[in-house]
Amino acid sequence: MEAALDLMRRISPKKSETALSALLSLLPHYSSDLLSQVDLPLQVSTDTTSMKDFLLCEYNRDADSYRSPWSNTYFPPLEDGPLPSEELRKLEVEANEVFSIYRDQYYEGGISSVYIWEDDDHGFVACFLIKKDGSKTGQGKRGNLQEGSWDAIHVIEVNPEEDGTAHYCLTSTIMLSLATENKTSGTFNLAGSIRRQMSLDLSVEEGHLCNMGRMIEDMESKLRNSLEQVYFGKTREMVCTLRPPPEGVQICIPESRPI
Amino acid sequence: MADCGDEADEAGAQAELSDKEKKDIAVWFLSNAPVGEISYVAKDIRTLIGDDRLYDMAASESFPRHNKAHLLTLELPDRSGDVIITGYGEIDKNQYLEPRSAQVATVDHIKQACTGLRPATDDELPSPYIEEFRYALDVELCKYVAEAYPKGISAVYCTRGKDIDVPGNDFDLVAIISASKKSPQNFCNGSWRSIWTFEFKDDTQLVDIKGKIQIAAHYFEEGNVQLSTKNEFNDSTVFQSPEDCAVQLTNIVRHHESEYLQSLEASYLHLPDSMFKDLRRKLPVTRTLFPWHNTLQFSINRDLSKELGIGK
Description:
Chain A is of the alpha+beta class. Chain A has 5 helices and 10 strands, in the order αααβββββαβββββα. Residues 248-259 of chain A have low confidence and may be disordered. β10 of chain A pairs antiparallel with β11 of chain B, so a sheet runs across the interface.
């Protein structure tokens, strides 16, 4: 398992799907461990009832069907597919609605889905997904990217306490890939994936959605910064180490560490 | 119960994973190893395959390919210089020409080390006429590489017409520049590879120039981020004396490589605004943090705009 995870952080994130399927065929006994520890870019399906796209993950899957957050039904149709309780479904509907607006404001497009289900204890788990195609043939408004994909997976465990607070544990993964291509600079390709965790105890006075939303917004901004400043900065630093820019025009690279 | 069933099925599937499939998987991982990391990938995949015979087959197929593709440089056993592992200098699968010192290094691909060294035979070297051009270019290119790359290694090979001994014929030289930085303790590795082909054409009295530069960088401290770039160049110049050609060709290489580096810097500068913004903005279109406390407002607005038939 350790060797498998080491391979996953060495192989290019652009090839993670092939790498994971190879590891799954090699290590069938570890399939659930691998699937839970390795994230892949999200797949999209269409809810033919509401004619809206939704995102697929392990959390809305049952057998070969996936539950749409819009109509609360499975596609392809599935009898007796598990559904969230009425109370959680209400929260799920609201979360999907609000998260769509959040997504529109930050992503100017893209697809989002939120799934909520009962936890083993008295709490619940919510999974917030976002996928954006920022390429010029997709929803890239500025049209600078030949290829540009962003996938965000936020899984948040919520455990309400007696005293009107709740414990929130958030695990977020961002996967992205961008490519530009033109005559002077050729092809320029950056791909990355990072995962971070964060836990907070918060008062539920303003509601779970408000707390979860703020945590996700904060985490997404941190991860985005980290990718842009630290991780991409490190690759740039490497280029400058291999072949330093001529003196005088050297652009200073801030020393930075990952969060 | 269902899970147990699945696992049994998958275990059955594993039994059917043939030796060839296992080897292919090993080859795939080794072939996709980032620069400087193939030995780590090899260690992992050897553990996962659990069959040394299959691993050895995969390794002996993948390492030479990887070493050549990444223009691996190895120090010569007598420490007189380095040999570049490239198809242009390949005599057979374990022997590579080092044209500057006119020696042939024996290479252990899997250990990534030179194990022997012998003088090159006359057959393996170009004619004195060609050597004049090759040598002059090597000298100029070395000066350029020393000034531009802190750890660059270069070599010039004759890849066509090496036995020509009088003017009036076509021949090709290939210049290679390979620079790499391996820093696994800092979780980063990277390489710069340039391949410049010069076609000396007698009928037009021109030298046609084709260049290819590839850069790779991997940073993997608590994450996995990879850069890969590639660009190609075309140019030409006048066929002159060996010395004049060498200066002229090196100037052209310098010009294209410097320009390329500048365009890379420009790409990095545009990253935050023009590229990243099309994925996710730093702040919402409203330029203020999302009003989570006031989301009820959104629902009302949305219902209202729906009723009024505006908005989405």
